[in-house]
Amino acid sequence: MELTLEGRRIVLGIGAGIAAYKAPQLVRRLTERGAAVRVVLSSSAAQFVTPLSLQAVSGLPVSTDLLDPAAEAAMGHIELARWADLILIAPATANLLARLRGGMADDLLTTLVLASRATVAVAPAMNQQMWAHPATLDNVNALADRGVRVLGPAAGQQACGDEGPGRMLEPDQLADCAEHLCYGSEPRLRGLRVVISAGPTFEDLDPVRFLGNRSSGKMGFALAGAAVAHGAEVTLVAGPVALSTPAGVNRVDVRSAEQMHNAVHEAAASGCDLYIGAAAVADFKPSAYALNKLKKSGDEGMTLALAQNPDILASVAALENGPFTVGFAAETEALEQHARSKLERKKVHMLAANRVGRPGCGFDADSNALTVYDANGETTLEQQSKVSLAHRLLVLVADAMDGSTRSESR
Ligand code: CTP
User: Fold this and answer.
1) Could you give the residue range(s) of every CATH 3.40.50.10300 domain in the chain?
2) Measured from the CA of 312, which atom of ligand 1 is nearest?
3) Is residue 408 scored above 70 in pLDDT?
4) What integer pLDDT is reported at residue 409 of this predicted model?
5) What residues are paired with 384 via a beta bridge?
6) Ramachandran angles phi, psi of 299, nearest 5°
7) For the chain, percent helix, then strand, then coil, each to nearest 5?
8) Domain boundaries 193-291+303-409, corresponding CATH code
9) Where are the domain boundaries for CATH 3.40.50.1950 in the chain?
10) Which of 219, 313, 316, 397 to mutate to test the pocket of ligand 1 (most atoms within 8 A of CB)?
11) Is 366 left (phi over 0), alpha (psi -120 to 50) or beta?
12) d(CA 220, CA 199)
């Protein structure tokens, strides 16, 4: 596995909520990806999870008290505040959110937040009624306005028996968020509405067969998670893939190119500043769908009649007052020539191209390399994880969008 949090320093602050029982797992997920994790328990959190377990999984001392002479001698709280690249608070209880909003410094964790310049992220976890209370929502909004990243909560079954929003995101999702935040500490797409299409499309032939392709959807999903980390409101139109939804993303599942076309246009119609077509859309579909399973007839071969699918990217690029558009192209040869011709033919603002067949890159891999073309030239993004590639690409997109707003307003 690629160690994408290698060298990153994370303070994991744990609030006194039942979801704290997931904290050791979260520490593992973060350290597996290469991060150094120092755990800080808020007052009373040790009643839900023991410092000893957390120390064992993180391999580093766990801090609990602000006024602990031994801990202060090892690494003082100001030093710890400076050490962190990211302060991730999970679970963040209603009480802890209120104290953070109030700028309290009444225990080690709240003091660290005040004393640090690191990115701060909170993963709320509480009863759904407490989450829906105007006081909590007000605190969360105030923290978000101050630049604190709010991760979740998810909706579902709660420890108290209730059902609804207020569940802490799962450790894997939080580790993904941490990775995104470590790359995208400055939100470059704040307030923008982004639509991303990802994965393959399946074109049904009969009730048991379809035409598909090898796209895994990983690049599009990484872009969706990265766009959320950059402050965007994200709709992800996903073809059939086996990936979990990045936190904070509004996902619409589709199967065929036609369904993807309709879902993308529906999302674009309700407001879209940026469209990224990362899906491997099938260019053709069977001309006819057989209601019953097709049968062999003797030893003869078979010819399949195909009809063309709509070009989703080109149709979005052609919208009046449409969004900034970014396309992808996977090519086996003449990368620049094909990419430039697609950029012009589809009239998109930017096109990210990659060569198919490089070892460790492409369809089902976790990494890729891209050359990004636009009217001003090209930029090469060398081989790296798709998560980090997604952030680099979004920074290029944000730069280009800033540039095009400037030239339009001139
Ligand atoms: N695309 C699309 N709708 C299609 C085909 C492609 O939106 N029906 C988008 C893809 O999501 C991608 C870009 O167009 O962003 C380029 O896809 P690609 O398959 O490389 O382009 P094609 O036009 O199909 O060109 P070709 O198959 O000839 O290489």
Assistant:
1) 193-291+303-409
2) 7
3) no
4) 46
5) 368
6) -100, 5
7) 35, 25, 40
8) 3.40.50.10300
9) 9-183
10) 313
11) alpha
12) 7
Task: Give yes or no for a contact between 375 and 350, defined as CB atoms under 8 angstroms apart.
Answer: no
Does residue 358 have a pLDDT over 80? no
Extract the tokens encoding 47. 């009643």
| Binding site membership of 313 for ligand 1 (Cβ less than 6 Å) | yes
Q: What is the pLDDT of residue 324?
A: 98
Q: What is the pLDDT of residue 177?
A: 92
**Does the structural domain 9-183 have CATH classification 3.40.50.300?**
no
- Let me know: does 136 contact 97? Beta carbons within 8 Å: yes
Alpha carbon distance 76, 288 (integer Å):
71
Give this prediction's pTM.
0.86
pLDDT > 50? residue 3: no
Residues with catalytic roles: 160
Q: What is the pLDDT of residue 407?
A: 53
Q: Closest Cα to atom 16, ligand 1: which residue?
A: 329
Tell me which amino acid residue 191 is: G
Run of H or E residues at 12:
strand 9-14
